[in-house]
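General statements about sequence and structure are easier to judge against a single worked case. For one protein, we set the task of working out the structure tokens from the amino acid sequence alone. The sequence in question and its structure tokens are set out directly beneath this paragraph.
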Amino acid sequence: MNSKNNNTTGSKRWFFTVLAIVASVLVVTFVTTFIVDPFFHYHLPLDGVQYPINNERYQNDGLTRLCEYNAVITGTSMTSNFNPTQFDELYGVDSMKFSYLGARNKEIDENLRKSYASGHELKYVLRSFDYEYFNTDKDDWFPDVVFPTYLTDDKVLNDVNYLLNKTVILKNLFGVLEYNITGQTTPDKDEMSKWNDNYEFDRQVVLNSYELEGDRVTAVNTMTEADKKRLSDNLQQNFFDLIDQHPETTFILFMPPYSVSYWDEVDSKGNVQWLIEAQQMAIEECFKHSNIELYSFCDDYELVIDLDEYKDQTHYEQKHNASILQDIHDNNHRLTPDNYMDYIDDISQFYLNYDYESLKQ
């Protein structure tokens, strides 16, 4: 009997010891993640601690809520290489940049709504107007990505998915530690989200980045009524609803100068006329909202044909971001009800008649 009692007592002691160790580890992990907070869910970077800012879908939400600013640069990767300090100097504001690689319109719109909901009074929003996604559904998100809704929603209880997350512990907490040990410093707002220095900009690199599928289509596709409704719904939900709610904000939308190789692929599918029609429709819809300034750089032909300035079909070297900002400030490439049909005629003449076959010769 004594032997059995001793074994039972020993087993209980071992069980509770292990339970106490596990509980202690969980508590330490929970508290450490909360204190360090690598995704800025609860607070901005701690004084004296350096943080990598390299995971926009996990970090932008906290930065959007917690940073102080009165203007925003946002959009797809076409906005990543802008310098907010240049925007500040040109417009007399204090801006932040929240870019999302590959984002569809809904994701960007939801982050902008978070900015207003967290009490920010925005004078300007500079946002990419990506005609690449004019044919997507209003509720589309970047494909094949698991989004951290436990960070972006308002539910406190599911924060456990962050505070006791193995990947956060092994990658992000230790990432902050490594970042400090190696003497790196928290990126300033200009360097956040930048990808420019990670790539080579070269004509052959661009031409190697895509392959046309099958023979070039000779048919000319135009917008159907279903296409028009899809585009209208997308713009209304992910642009205009918020824009109309905030007449105090000037929304600067710009269509980026994708390279002629992008248009080569569009042409190969017979869709150049379709895309120009979609642009015209989007432009005319923008004119219905008085607090939108609309710009397009599709007619910057000197740039779009110079493939040495691109890393792929759409992404240009960061010096052109600086030029685009200056041009926007100076009202260059601005579309208005008085000039937009001249723009449509001009890009139609250029992109419908370009010798795309010559690109890879």
In short: The first strand starts at residue 71 and ends at 75. Residues 104 and 141 are 5 Å apart (CA to CA).
